[in-house]
Design goal:
22-stranded mixed beta sheet; 4 helices; alpha/beta
Amino acid sequence: MPIRYSSAIDDGKNGNIAFSGIARRNDGNIEFITSEDGMLVTATLYPPIGEGNPLTTEYACEILARSGISYGTLLDELAENIFTVNTERRVLKDLIVATGKPPVAAQAEHVVLFDRFKSEFVPFEDETEIIDWHQVSSYRIVNAGEQVGKVIPKQEGQDGIRVNGEKIPCKVETSSSYALGKNITRQKDGIFASASGKLAQESGKLSVEEVLLIKGNVDYHVGHVMFPGDVIIDGTIAPGFKVYAGGSITIKDTMDAFDVNAKKDLLCGQGIIGREQGFVRVGGMLKAKFVESAHVAVRGDVEIPGALVATKLYTLGTLRMGDKGKIVGGEVFATHGVFCGYLGGSTNPVTAINIGVDFTMQQKLDQANAALRELSARLNRLIDLAKSRPEAQILKLRDETEVKVRALAQNIAELSKQVDSDPGAVVEVKNAVYPGVAITICHVRIIIEKPMKKSRFHLDTVAGKIIIEQ
């Protein structure tokens, strides 16, 4: 096919330039479009009609050359498509016949964080119908050994080339990066936390803070607090918010005890006020000025110089309240004794003091006794049923239940030995004991029926009774 002419026209789409070879009528032909950025050439191939001459690769290449297309031509693919057009006599559209090479920007080595550790606000998915804003945290927690990011290696820049052979100079990208601070280490191309805590990003430096400082209240601005280390709260804990700490909790204001759990100590600068079915659990010691209407379990000692009002307190240590400390209403379980200024109140509220026992063992014993009562009742029903219907299956169930009853009774006997852990524990009251107070030492109980002044209660293990010293 003779080469005639190649015309260039604006196709009206994004500034692209269209080229079409001028051939004889009915001959095969090619029309192609170069993108505005000069990085892509697409073509439409037209088959011959009737006795027209077929489209040839040579003709197509000449048209491309005349139009200045000198780089990135896909000649093998073009030849295959021309063969298809000629043999199948159909138009082929939007074929890629040449591509440029984009430039590659130069980059220095830099550190990037994984998306889940970035501090930016992450929008909720559209299908999220109900959002519990208590759960929305304002900080990111990492565990020791967890990878938080990666190192992007240095990248040399490369110039690009347009389809017309024009050079595109590469750029130098400035990527944000992080310096490695406290408790952050690099291992090959990975960035890891060497301690558990809060991932902090400050002045371009990454670090892990093992102490969480909350400058204000635990509320909707902060969300529930679940932290592996120590937690320091400058304000208070708003109703309905949880605070869990793998270390100690220090709070400067009065605390609403909805759900607070410290693996180590709990130090409250003011007091603790219970909320509905709220619970406070402390793995170490507890210090607070007062506790009111709360449910508290402590493995260590408890210091409350003010008042303990309508509270259920469990401690495996000693409760110390000082000369003016008051216990009014509620129930106290203190393994190694109670020291306070006043016990009970002038309105005679029911106030129960239990010492010398391990409350954890007592709870297990109570649960085992409840299970034994239920199992014994079932055994009695099976015994009666076996008398009237001595079937093999019923007899088997009876025998299996009897074995379980004996095993549970033996377990209860062992637990009973562990419940009374400190028969030498005492209750000392510096000022007054009011009527209505019940004191139990290792399951030996007395009830105070008349007002008493300074008193000391301890157990006479030989006589099996509580001795009162005044």
